[in-house]
């Protein structure tokens, strides 16, 4: 009996020594300094890039130019994420400041892509914007728990792609009958994330990255004071994808408007900022002032007065029932994510902006907007487009009714679940409806008639749309 017990003990010790020789600690985790590049999750990431990443790269090579440049940056961002995943297996979980510093290499690549969409609008703006917005999916690596303010990793990847899909669909529609290389690139980019990255995260990191319990500590960059006599630092860069500081509340911002005036009056120092008007500054003594108003001055005054009529930009929930999105100009990343089926969304006076509504709402109204894009999931009652010019609306879920009134130029993207929607148009022109036509993500475009023939037959008028046929 004792001999058998000794044999079992010796066998157990031999197994422990073998595990130790392979670099496995008593906790079952890789020890510091051990090469984790052969870990199954890392090898699966290599397979992801070899399959889906290679398709995007091959399609971009056929196009070249800025599309190839932005594709290389996208693949660089994935390569950086692989390096971070390797480091995570050898690093202890950091605090928020340490996490921001840890993810800094990934954020730098993302900022490079975003910089390509700034400045003069490129002919490939939709390619650049779609690629740039898609990289927010890589932020799943920053998920640290249910209280971190992010969706779960799988849901985060899917939601991030929905933001980029708006521009990706534009590429598919624009080049569908012009250049199949662009169509191939757009499809490959989508497959890189769905199903590529999504399935990878689902298989290996459904609850977020797993940090090492006994690894090295992540370092956070200390703030260094500038040396005496050094020039002032440059202004801060644009907001990055990862930030350890929450947005500043409105109460901490400097007062504006009448609040600032009353605060200045109560301080008793009202005239400190006033300038003294000398004799040569008075209008009656200035030679450059005449009684004739030039045409340029009239134009300037009219444009300034029209601008002043527009109120300040607004994106807020009013009385807990209505989301007000007003006077947004040039904002491509507007998001409403905390909504429910009892709330409505009213979009007014926006221009050259994109709004994404993540969740089911009761009603959506788009009023007096120009070059506005709206992406929503589900609507209970209706989506209404009124008094607009050049708007695009995409339904990713279901919508029983869509109405377009007094609008010039409107593109409606319908999902498979919203093909049964009732579309009503009145006093509108250039209305196109795009519907999915196949499993490859192709879109079929249908124009709604805007001219009708009314004929009196059998005691009543019969109305039929005008049909045009080419010679």
TrEMBL record:
<dbReference type="InterPro" id="IPR018106">
    <property type="entry name" value="CAP_CS_N"/>
</dbReference>
<dbReference type="InterPro" id="IPR013992">
    <property type="entry name" value="Adenylate_cyclase-assoc_CAP_N"/>
</dbReference>
<feature type="region of interest" description="Disordered">
    <location>
        <begin position="216"/>
        <end position="258"/>
    </location>
</feature>
<dbReference type="InterPro" id="IPR017901">
    <property type="entry name" value="C-CAP_CF_C-like"/>
</dbReference>
<comment type="similarity">
    <text>Belongs to the CAP family.</text>
</comment>
<feature type="compositionally biased region" description="Basic and acidic residues">
    <location>
        <begin position="277"/>
        <end position="289"/>
    </location>
</feature>
<feature type="compositionally biased region" description="Low complexity">
    <location>
        <begin position="240"/>
        <end position="254"/>
    </location>
</feature>
<dbReference type="InterPro" id="IPR036222">
    <property type="entry name" value="CAP_N_sf"/>
</dbReference>
<feature type="region of interest" description="Disordered">
    <location>
        <begin position="273"/>
        <end position="313"/>
    </location>
</feature>
<dbReference type="Pfam" id="PF08603">
    <property type="entry name" value="CAP_C"/>
</dbReference>
<feature type="compositionally biased region" description="Pro residues">
    <location>
        <begin position="224"/>
        <end position="239"/>
    </location>
</feature>
<dbReference type="InterPro" id="IPR016098">
    <property type="entry name" value="CAP/MinC_C"/>
</dbReference>
<feature type="domain" description="C-CAP/cofactor C-like">
    <location>
        <begin position="312"/>
        <end position="448"/>
    </location>
</feature>
<protein>
    <recommendedName>
        <fullName>Adenylyl cyclase-associated protein</fullName>
    </recommendedName>
</protein>
<dbReference type="InterPro" id="IPR006599">
    <property type="entry name" value="CARP_motif"/>
</dbReference>
<dbReference type="Pfam" id="PF21938">
    <property type="entry name" value="CAP_N"/>
</dbReference>
<dbReference type="Pfam" id="PF01213">
    <property type="entry name" value="CAP_N-CM"/>
</dbReference>
<dbReference type="InterPro" id="IPR053950">
    <property type="entry name" value="CAP_N"/>
</dbReference>
<dbReference type="InterPro" id="IPR001837">
    <property type="entry name" value="Adenylate_cyclase-assoc_CAP"/>
</dbReference>
<dbReference type="InterPro" id="IPR013912">
    <property type="entry name" value="Adenylate_cyclase-assoc_CAP_C"/>
</dbReference>
<dbReference type="InterPro" id="IPR036223">
    <property type="entry name" value="CAP_C_sf"/>
</dbReference>
């Amino acid at each position: 009996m004792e001999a058998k017990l000794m044999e079992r003990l010796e066998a157990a010790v031999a197994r422990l020594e073998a595990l130790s020789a392979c670099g496995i600690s008593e906790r079952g985790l890789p020890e510091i300094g051990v090469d984790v590049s052969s870990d199954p999750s890392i090898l699966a990431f290599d397979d992801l890039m070899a399959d889906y990443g290679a398709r995007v790269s091959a399609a971009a090579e056929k196009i070249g130019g800025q599309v190839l440049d932005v594709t290389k940056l996208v693949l660089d961002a994935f390569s950086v994420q692989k390096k971070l995943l390797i480091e995570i297996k050898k690093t202890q979980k950091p605090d928020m400041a340490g996490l921001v510093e840890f993810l800094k290499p990934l954020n730098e690549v993302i900022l490079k892509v975003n910089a390509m969409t700034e400045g003069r609008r490129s002919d490939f703006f939709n390619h650049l914007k779609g690629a740039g917005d898609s990289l927010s999916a890589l932020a799943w690596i920053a998920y640290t728990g249910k209280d971190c303010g992010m969706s779960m990793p799988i849901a985060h990847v899917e939601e991030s792609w929905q933001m980029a899909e708006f521009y990706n669909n534009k590429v598919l529609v624009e080049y569908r009958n012009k250049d199949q290389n662009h169509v191939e690139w757009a499809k490959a980019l989508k497959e890189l994330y769905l199903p590529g990255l999504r399935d990878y995260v689902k298989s290996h990191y459904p609850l977020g990255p797993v940090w090492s319990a006994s690894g090295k500590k992540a370092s956070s960059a200390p703030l260094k004071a500038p040396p005496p006599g050094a020039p002032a630092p440059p202004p801060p860069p644009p907001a990055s994808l990862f930030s350890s500081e929450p947005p500043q509340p409105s109460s901490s911002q400097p007062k504006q408007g009448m609040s600032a005036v009353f605060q200045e009056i109560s301080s008793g120092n009202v005239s400190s900022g006033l300038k003294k008007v000398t004799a040569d500054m008075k209008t009656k003594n200035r030679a450059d002032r005449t009684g004739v108003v030039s045409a340029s001055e009239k134009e300037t005054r009219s444009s300034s007065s029209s601008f002043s009529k527009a109120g300040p930009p607004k994106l807020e929930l009013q009385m807990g029932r209505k989301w007000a999105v007003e006077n947004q100009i040039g904002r491509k990343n507007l998001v409403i994510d905390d909504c429910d089926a009892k709330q409505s969304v009213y979009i007014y006076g926006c221009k050259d902006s994109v709004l994404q509504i993540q969740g089911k709402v009761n009603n959506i109204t788009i009023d007096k907007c120009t070059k506005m894009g709206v992406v929503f999931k589900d609507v209970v009652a209706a989506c209404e487009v009124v008094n607009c010019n050049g708007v695009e609306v995409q339904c990713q879920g279901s919508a029983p009714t869509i109405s377009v009134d007094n609008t010039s130029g409107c593109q409606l993207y319908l999902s498979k679940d919203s093909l049964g929607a009732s579309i009503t148009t009145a006093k509108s022109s250039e209305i196109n409806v795009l519907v999915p036509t196949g499993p490859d993500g192709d879109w079929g475009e249908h124009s709604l008639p805007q001219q009708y023939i009314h004929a009196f037959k059998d005691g009543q008028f019969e109305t039929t749309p005008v049909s045009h046929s080419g010679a």
